[in-house]
Specification:
CATH class of the largest domain: Alpha Beta
Number of strands: 14
Largest sheet: 5 strands, parallel
Helix content: 25-40%
Oligomer: single chain
Number of helices: 13
Strand order of the largest sheet: 2-5-11-1-12
CATH topology of the largest domain: Rossmann fold
């Protein structure tokens, strides 16, 4: 986790996907020494955006009903990663945070992520490419979790504005006057309100998820959502991926990648009668960001072809690979033929 990971591990039930995340991907110093930096949840049909981001919950105190805003799993992980960025000392490594989502396809991911979906595109520096605005309630909960404490109010043209101390130190100031600190986590405040699209996932926050390759009780995950993740197939027989015979040292150069996409889209169009919704099944050059690796092609691209493009009819893949239908039953069978698949696509006459 030297760089942010945003990955879905998928495969048959019982293949050790959750175990791999817990014991191999998430470092032991996060699990054991600083468990507050590992936030876990499980998606299910009743899980909502409120559970993920935060929601108002009524509570009875002294026979009076009050409403408190409780942070969801994502907001908690986001605030913890911000807190680590602000509190780390010069020369030390910033502490990472891992948000782990088990069974990501057993909940309605599009509804659960909501506007957070926009944050999943990451720039080279690890921050979200694009930001989103949040409500005042969500902002107050974020700054509270970071370490800001309300210490009173200050008069302004808009009335009384709350003032805060950071970690209980210094003079109480409005959030706008804490801008030197908040700018370190890309939050801009003006007139005590967020301005611009300023909430972004920072580079020290990784999101890891698991899902079964096929399940009768899953929700549909659209192509735009899938594109924003890296994918890793975990086979039942624990076999290692076959080494790629294309690319150099596992890297596919830009020209070769663009040629592959051009020929792949032609192959997809030539089988439009087997595909529902052909427009959304075309693949853009940024489906995988540069540098493109053979591993990404084998997992992310080929799973998209298997699960989304040719999910109804595998005959085009069978014909291209010159195998029998019995030799291409599972995605595990398909991924083992990735070298032949890429070679045959590149040899097509377009």
């Amino acid at each position: 986790m030297k760089t942010p990971i945003q990955k879905i591990l998928f495969g048959s039930p019982g293949t050790g996907k959750s175990y791999r995340i817990d014991r191999e991907i998430v470092p032991i110093d996060l699990r054991i020494k600083s468990p507050e930096n590992v936030i876990k949840t499980v998606f299910h049909p009743e899980y909502t955006y409120g559970d993920f981001m935060g929601k108002l919950v009524p509570i009875t105190i002294s026979k009076k009903v009050e409403y408190n805003f409780y942070e969801g799993h994502f907001l908690k992980a986001l605030a913890q990663s911000y807190k680590n960025l602000l509190s780390h000392q010069e020369g030390e490594e910033v502490k990472n945070v891992a948000l782990v989502i088990d069974e990501i396809n057993r909940g309605n991911s599009s509804a659960i992520f909501g506007t957070v979906f926009q944050l999943l595109d990451r720039a080279e520096n690890g921050w979200s490419d694009y930001g989103i605005n949040v409500s005042d309630l969500e902002l107050r909960k974020i700054v509270d979790l970071i370490g800001f404490e309300e210490a009173g109010t200050e008069k302004s043209g808009e009335g009384q504005i709350p003032t805060y101390k950071y970690e209980g130190k210094g003079q109480a100031k409005t959030l706008e006057k804490h801008q030197d600190l908040l700018s370190k986590i890309n939050i801009e405040i003006q007139n005590n309100k967020i301005i611009g699209s300023c909430i972004r996932i920072p580079p020290n926050l990784s999101i890891l998820a698991t899902m079964n390759t096929s399940d009768n009780s899953i929700y549909f995950m659209d192509s735009a959502f899938k594109r924003r993740w890296e994918w890793e197939f975990v086979n039942w027989d624990k076999s290692k991926p076959l080494a790629a015979t294309y690319g150099t040292a596992g890297i596919v150069d830009k020209d070769e990648w663009e040629e592959l996409i051009k020929k792949l889209n032609s192959f997809i169009k030539s089988h439009h009668t087997s595909i529902r919704g052909i427009e959304d099944k075309q693949i853009g050059y940024y489906f995988i960001k540069q540098p493109v690796t053979a591993e990404q092609i084998q997992n992310k691209l080929m799973f998209f072809l298997w699960d989304s493009v040719f999910n109804r009819d595998k005959k085009p893949l069978v014909d291209l690979l010159k195998v029998t239908r019995d030799e291409l039953v599972t995605f595990g069978d398909f991924t083992k033929l990735h070298n032949e698949f890429i070679a045959n696509i590149m040899n097509l006459n377009v």
